[in-house]
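Pinned message: reference record for Butyrophilin subfamily 1 member A1-like
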Amino acid sequence: MGWHTLKIIQLPQGNMWIQSTMKKMTFLLRHISRPSSLLHVLIIFCITLKIHQAKSAQFTAVGPDQPVTAIVGQEIVLPCHLSPNMNAQNMEVRWFRSMFDNYVHLYRNGKDQYTNQILEYQRRTALLKDDMVNGNVPLRILNITRSDEGEYHCFIRGDTSYAETKLDLEVAGLGSAPLISVEDYQDGGIRVVCRSAGWYPVPEVLWRHASGQQLPSLSETKSQKGDGLFETENSIIIKHHSNQNLSCCIRNNFINQTKESAVYISDPFFPRVNPWMVVLCGSLVVLFGFLALAVCLFRTRGKLNEEIGTHLQKIYELQREIEWRKSTIHPENLTVDRDTANSFLIVSEDRKNVRRADTRQNVPDNPERFDSWSCALGCEVFTSGRHYWEVEVVEGRFWAAGIARQSVRRNTLTGPNTEEGIWAVEQCGGRCQALTAPRPTPLSLNQVPKRMRVFLDIEGGWVAFFDADTEDPIFTFPPVSFTGEGFRPWLWLGVAGSQLQLCH
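Predicted structure (tokens):
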């Protein structure tokens, strides 16, 4: 019968799943005798094909297995691509360091965005778009500096899913060519000094004879400057005419590169041997020995003081925890202040739950509302006493919770940390960190907390976080003065779909 004849279309080899399904369809159609049965089979085929397409739409972000190495002053390309290969031109591509909202580079809606770009990366980054159709989204960083070293995250989001990978950038400094100078007479010889700057990590300095023989140096000084790079000064005493022709070699062992300069000292410059110089040389050796011993003792004392300070801090934290556990404190019944919630946040009717939306909500203008960050404050204001409450993570891997000063900036907040008046713990992807200043403190936790307990002691200037399910400590901030101002619960939700709940 002609109504159940199906024409088999030759498909590319890559569509093997569809070809297999078509063969099964053909077998069924050959045994169908009613039109209604044919309609049922076609409906099942369409649904199965749709499910297959939905599954194939998932992707992962892939970066390099090894750290990427860059040299100060040059440029570097950080690789990242989608697997399987697919067009990323209509996706969001976000490169960031430790904070999701403060990004290194952002590509969204088909163009680059610079609103919340980190100041240090402005006019230094470019997303390479030549091969975006195949899922390649590498980032180029120009004029590499020492502070660029560290961890980078490549975050890619499509219509229904997102993926993230991370990579490490290691920065090396290849300094200036060695500058050799003849300084003065010392210890019956000529003191020659080799200087260079702009190295990282600490370089190796060698003196060599023209024959390649290594010569011992007199002294070496290495110091780190404000830009994180090292400068070195190495001296040598030349006493024999056989060492008139020598070179200074400075080597960066991390990138296996060397810079070298040479000098020749003619015969008239060498002094005659003076017996008093021998005595002076011996005295200097003894003096340097005493200096070395003094430096060693000073460093040992400094290390002991540092260890004592660390142990005292741990004892203080344990004492504070014991005081909390002995005292009777009832949990606070908190609610979210809608007037402070960012326009991307949706607050529930009972004001216990807050969720991050895909788009801005229609909310009235209010000077109390957070503008640049998707944050919200609690309605309650604490000015004295001890308090605690619990926050449950309903959904999401990008969130933070803690306390904030009542005067925390709403419109010009550069980043949540203690310098901005915020004490909080954050989950950013697969890791947790305390929002300390000037940079976050990574936390080594057995598991990411699903329910977190926040403790606040106004008089003691103390903020601590615990896993409410296991009672394990998460982080305790160093004590500060909390007098003279009120404090409110603080919440942040990083990406759409994230959801937090204030527990009672």
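Pinned by admin. Summary line: The chain has three helices and 32 strands.
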